[in-house]
User: Fold this.
Amino acid sequence: MDSDTINFTETFPHSMQEALKASLKVFWRLGVHRTSIDDVCRQSGVSYHFLNENFESKEHLYRTAVMWYLDQYGRQLLSEFALHSNPTEALRGALYECIGLFCNKQCEHAKLLSYALAAVNNSDRILISELLSLRRKVYATILMKLNSNKTHLKDTADIPVLARFYITTLRGLASQAADGIPSDELYRVADLSLELLEAYRK
Assistant:
């Protein structure tokens, strides 16, 4: 199963997506290594028969759930780049989307991604691998957007470094929002970061 080629929303029925989301909550709450399939069934309400029929092992379930979940999150961020031809507005949209996602305490994404950050700190290799894949995809998208507008940027603009700066900014905003920093402060941080790009515009 390849997270770069599968469209999880179209491939998986709603019942499967709900099962994957419920399973992730259990994995990230209890810790992947300490969680059994029985734990997932008992705490998520997903039937053992359903999981046994669709997944070869606990590891298969977890990897599939992580790949599916990060695909949803990544698509929300990347959609902003398709909506805007102006790179500043495209980046603003992605930065604001990230802040809004994490600062909404009622949002399932915010809750699950908070578990994800904790799991990363616990050296969850599957999650780390898939997060790196997502970061590479977002970096490539930012790079492509900047390159497509390089005629509007000064010759002194180092486009790969600018792209790296904004992927780092996204990660920092997500971490700060998950830590409870107020959204109005984070929006100001995002706007401040965009002044750098504006400084390189002709």
Q: What stands out?
A: The mean pLDDT is 83. The radius of gyration is 18 Å. The chain is about 75% helix and 0% strand. The first helix runs from residue 8 to 11.
